[in-house]
Known about the structure:
Helix content: 10-25%
Structural class: mainly beta
Strand content: 35-45%
Number of domains: 2
Number of helices: 4
CATH architecture of the largest domain: Distorted Sandwich
Distance between the termini: 99 Å
Amino acid sequence: MSRLNQTWHAGIIAMTLILSIHERILAAPPVLALPIKCQIGAECYIQNFVDHDKGPGWRDYAEGALSTNGHGGTDFSLVNQRVMRAGVDVLAASSGIVAATHDGEADISVRQNQTKDFKRGGAGNFVRIRHADGWETQYSHLKRGSITVHPGWRVETGTILGQVGLSGNSEFPHMHFSVRHHGQVVDPFMPTPHLAGGGKQSLWAPAVDNQLTYCPAGLLYGGFATEIPSRDKAEAGEYFSTTLSRDSPSIAFWIVMFGLRKDDIVEMCLSNTHGEMINERQKVENNNAMLFAFIGKHRSEKIWPPGVYTGRVVLYRDVGAVIEETRSISRD
């Protein structure tokens, strides 16, 4: 090869490297739209975030306890299985190419799945999308038979990928949304100035950022039962239309809360128009992603007195109440 050709060849290599570096610098992270079609705070909520604690504990991006050890994504949870059965769409957060899908796994809680024979690392039914510059998003625990896309397909922001389910290693109906850059987990709620093309803001589009206000704890739902309530029935929505009759065997007020911290105090009260019937307080012993609790009593009189029965729950943290909610049921 002549000296001229060698120089030309070296120039091409150098220019290729410069263009590659230039393109990498200009390749900004994807701007993410909301990956689920539901009303945040009513039909769905964020239960867990990416874990930022490097040890055996867990810590979310806001220094709270909404995570689990080693959790690598954001859990968009539904309030109960009744909403899941009605159908909640999962949407592509950004345009890209479908890299992989998996379907066929049953929608069943791990509390009821005795075999725990999870495929694909417990992700259940999922869709993975490849974006530019090594970015990927994955949508896990989808409803069996709901996936609408196939590997190789191009999808746009907002394309329906499937529906929220209860497949894989899942205890409640939710969609585990994960973001990776060259295989490394990225928290979409954190700024990315350390990445090529990164910025000082989160990966969420501004309009989405406004919807996803951090909520450290909350009451998912609560209601009444005329038996000793079970968590499985509550989450399945079986107490949704409970009615209290004059001769119901029992009355119980139950709640499901998220984001409990060690040393929180949960106070529950059940009363009727004649006054308070039960009042109980319990101290939370450990950080708890979800709490199911209830108070109640069996009928001791011939009939339940007519009137309104009210359940009240208060969550005390540090110096005051952070949650206070009531629910009511009537006995005519």
